[in-house]
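Example 3.2
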Amino acid sequence: SRNADIDDAVNRAPGANDDGSGVAAILELARVFSQFTFESTVMFVAFTGEEEGLFGSRALAADLKASNVNVVGMVTNDIIGNVVGGSGQVDSLSVRCFSDNPSDSPHRQLARYMKLQGEAYLPGFTVRLIARRDRPGRGGDHFAFNEQGYTAARLTEPEDNLNHQHNMDDLPEFMSFPYLTKVVKVNAAYLASWADAPESPTNVRLTPQGGQQLLSWDKNAEAGLSYLVAFRGPESASYDSLVAVAAETQVALDPAPLPDGVFISVSGVDAEGNESVFSQEVVLRK
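Structure, written as tokens:
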């Protein structure tokens, strides 16, 4: 890590939590994931030069873009090992997930997917969706991927504690390793499903049909898929309900019980139960 005072050439910033916690997480994930085979390539990367200007992440993101690599998304785990916030509040049961605007952006859809998958495999733990790219005045390596047009999100602990960031007190004794383990499990849950998931449905649309609305989407290239239709209210950050649809690519919706301005998305589900990241949303207006 880097000392908060850039002119201080004496005091160190050991960086146990910022971001030794993130590096430890990806090393453990890489160890576990190396024992399995996935349909997609999963890259575990520790970047250099984040504090000085995102040097490592910007170099990799630019190289991937120049090489036309199909990067479906990037998640950074940055500062994920502490449960005591700067206010003194203790929270060992949630992690913040930051994603960029707008509300229906691919970044938000990825964050919603991470929440759904992570919470399903870690009951009692909450992935808190934060409707902004990062904390005020702060940043992370996901910025570099945003800049190249890639979908990206950030996981970070429930509340920043500046007493243990960018100074000599960023030490292991101020971390919670049981909490860090929970965040690693959240990552494992969404990554394992995502790496084997089909592509997200495309061209999702609503068409008036009598007194109903016909929700339809293009058929995926992968055969044998079923689908989930997801709904969230105008004020909801995440999906309130999921409805399973068989192998059809359309479903008739009765708008009467649905609120005006409800957001609707579709996820493809393969035969093994792997769910795709949610599609672009459509809005039902009455």
